[in-house]
Design a protein that fits this description.
27% of the residues lie in helices and 26% in strands. By secondary structure, the chain is an alpha/beta fold. The chain folds into 2 domains: 181 residues, Medium-chain alcohol dehydrogenases, catalytic domain (Quinone Oxidoreductase, Chain A, domain 1); 138 residues, Rossmann fold (3-Layer(aba) Sandwich). Strands 3, 4, 5, 9, 10, 17 and 18 form a 7-stranded mixed sheet that branches. The chain has a 6-stranded parallel sheet with strand order 13-12-11-14-15-16, sandwiched between helices. Helix 4 crosses helix 5 and helix 4 crosses helix 10. The longest helix has 14 residues. It is globular and about 65 Å long. 47% of the residues are buried.
């Protein structure tokens, strides 16, 4: 076999199913993975629709894959053909200063498979096969299905933002703004880490129902009531941690408005270049702690796998739709539907 089926984005709004050459592992440390499952991320959707403009065409999207090693190239020593793997989209050199201190997602020679954030973008996983490097592979636990394994990268981002960067502590009262797939993962991580009162905020009742089912102690729909007033009814002393996972500037502004003294807040969801204001003196005297988190790294990927392997987080609970690669256009339409959480493609 010399060709494979792939979803190729030729321009904004122009996604086509095509037969393309099968990738070959030619460079040092390269591997080819037969894709079993790949999550459909909002950033994939934004690229397809032209909301995200940092795209070089043609592009095969898809950066949340799991699969089976199909072929290995020179220098590959830790994985072999037929190994079941989770794949990180974030490739790195391992030698620059950022890599040496563990910030591989800052790597000066970084590449990404099917995603964004760096200039070097390799074909992604909305395809039957994908090429990457051995450093991006993680062994898939036997008790983890391929669909759940495909949630590793977004779950790793949730762990990195909530626990590693924002230092959530046992018993903290946590507010998650936006309870789509990423917000639900942040919520589940917070619950697993021992959150006290856990509030989900969203304008979709469907999303709030999912948040309640997955551990939220309270939910708030800002379309029906004043979100800040309701938060402070539930938490008279205010939240310990607020995570913005909605991706909308209105969510960031609400997060800023919810702060009290010492609140930790994480600009997690928004990726578009929009602005919000801070009162300098008020921010100074609140003495809060602002963080932001993007991408993933090997530590976060390992932590996400452990969370799922031990049953602390059941990632399959956020999957609402599974479709074959041949129905990629239907998947794009589903991304526009409010009554969905995570869409998974099965090539």
């Amino acid at each position: 076999m010399s060709t494979m089926l792939a979803a190729v984005l030729h321009d904004y709004g122009k996604l086509a199913l095509e037969s393309v050459p099968l990738p070959k592992p030619q460079g040092l440390g390269e591997v080819v993975v037969r894709i079993k499952s790949c999550g459909f991320c909002a950033t994939d959707y934004k690229a397809i629709k032209g909301v995200r403009r940092n795209v070089t065409f043609p592009l095969i999207p898809g950066h949340e894959p799991s699969g089976v090693v199909a072929e290995i190239g020179p220098g590959v020593s830790h994985f072999k053909v037929d190994d079941e793997v989770v794949v990180s989209p974030s490739g790195y050199c391992g030698y620059c200063e950022h890599c040496r201190v563990g910030n591989t997602h800052y790597c000066e020679s970084a590449f990404t498979t099917g995603g964004d954030g760096v200039e070097d973008v390799w074909p992604g996983a909305f395809a039957e096969y994908m090429k990457t490097r051995e450093c991006c592979l993680f062994a898939k636990p036997e008790n983890l299905g391929f669909d759940a394994a495909a949630i590793t990268e977004p779950l790793s981002g949730a762990w990195k933002g909530v626990v590693h960067y924002s230092k959530m502590e046992l018993g903290n009262d946590v507010v998650v703004i936006g309870t789509g797939s990423m917000g639900l993962l942040c919520l589940m991580v917070a619950k697993a880490a021992g959150a006290g009162r856990l509030i989900g905020i969203d304008t979709s009742d469907y999303a709030l129902d999912r948040a309640r089912a997955l551990g939220a102690t309270h939910v708030i729909n800002p379309s029906d009531e004043d979100a800040k007033s309701r938060v402070y009814e539930i938490l008279p002393e205010g939240p310990d941690l607020v995570v913005e996972a909605a991706g909308a500037i209105e969510a960031v502004r609400l997060m800023v408005d919810l702060r009290r003294r010492g609140t930790r807040w994480n600009v997690f969801g928004i990726t578009t270049h929009e602005t919000f204001e801070l009162d300098g003196g008020y921010t100074h005297f609140l003495e809060g702690h602002m963080d932001a988190s993007f991408g993933t790294n090997p530590l976060a990927m390992s932590k996400a796998i452990r969370l799922m392997e031990t049953g602390l987080v059941d990632a399959e609970n956020i999957i609402s739709h599974r479709l074959p690669l041949e129905k990629i256009h239907q998947a794009v339409q589903l991304m526009e539907c409010r009554e969905r959480t995570k869409v998974v493609i099965n090539p």
